[in-house]
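ESCALATION

Customer reports they have been waiting on this structure for their group meeting. Please prioritize. Original submission:
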Amino acid sequence: MARSDNADPEVASATPQGRPEGSPADARRKRRRTALVRGFGIFAAIVIVAAAAGLVWQISAVAVPRTGTFTPPEAYPPDEPAEVLAAADRDAPVPDLTSVLPELLADPRFASDLSAVFADAFTGEVLFEQDGAKPLTPASSMKTVTAVSALTHLGAEYRIPTTVVEGPDEDSVVLVGGGDVALTVDGEGYYGKGASLTELAEAVLEARGGDAPSTVYLDTSLFADTVNAPAVPMSDLDLYTAPAAPLMIDGGRIDASTHYTPHHEDPAMAAATVFADLLGADTVTEGVAADGAEELAAVYSEPLASLVDFFILTSDNELADAVAFQTALAVEGEMTWAAIGKAHMATLESLGVDTTGLVLNDGSGMSPADRITANAFTQMLTAAVSTPASSLFEALPVAGWSGSLEDHFTTAAEGEGSVRAKTGTLTGVSSLTGTVMTDDGRLVVFSIISNGGSSGGVKDAMDEVTTAVSLCGC
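Update from on-call: job pushed to the front of the queue and completed.
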């Protein structure tokens, strides 16, 4: 049975990059403020490193979006941007982590299968390694691979289409799933703003001169694989994720107000039924659009950058797998679990990552059969710094403040704000992958993976290890 990255489902934020109005009392101390100022500055550091390589790409991407249309908000950037960290100091001392980490990683709360790597974010120099080449189950840290791969191959402005085409007769239309699991009924849903089925229905009626069809055919042929990734128990498709499908409303949730909640057994048909009702159609049935069928209307998801922000911040399994399927479709030409593994492996190899022993079954990390190394994670992160995928660093939860790290660091409060990382939790599996800023201003990327033992105790131990690195003036 998989376990969530949040002990309490209610802590998952539906607003990416959300931040509390006030800090905890202890966080008001000078050192904590300094940590917060430095921690939120990772984005600034990444921008400096990536500016030359990424500026032309970003301008081109927005000017010529590959899918849909990207319309910047009115305040873009905001008139009064939130406070961010000062940039990392490239001249800051490189910490001697061998003086602090061996003893901390010998903590009995860690399982015997423990892998840890810490590396300099700018040079890639490995500062500390313990079994860094040992493939282990990463759980939701896998989502960082999904984000880097999608941003690399699709681009931040990419949008997932959902289309309606003419049916086999004049009294029917075909709803064609393109892979968007964040569809909404009216533009607002679990994931915030999203493609609206109401808007799609209205556009179809307009294209048909106001004449509602009697039948809606649901075309899910783009996805032709099992509803669960390899080794993922079918029982996990109720609470922790949805049965895979190429279109869903609110990630297939029955209750769109809750993160971990029962899902529809057939989320695509559930969405098609809602659409048919909005359209005024009497019948919904499965079917496949004819080759060359005329498109009547289309709606598009939020930009990929927003989708990545959401599934990284809140560890959303449905959305992570959906984005991974889009990458697989673009790279391998098919929307299958095997294609996800091939696309992600190709991405890592293109970044110079050692892929020896890696097994990549999905985009969410739900598969207990996934295998990845701490070396691979840190190599990927250091390589991503100078690519368009560097926006991943902006999405990472902040220790003690946001997303799946909001309820972490209860035993290591000094790390709040200095650590930004993706959590990973399955039964007997814990991982933490991301960045930490030292007191001297040096930016370090890291990955810690533990297989076996109590996830609660391991979680606290990982928090304490990364906090010790943040405090390191060694």
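Sent to customer with the following note: The first strand starts at residue 113 and ends at 120.
Escalation resolved.
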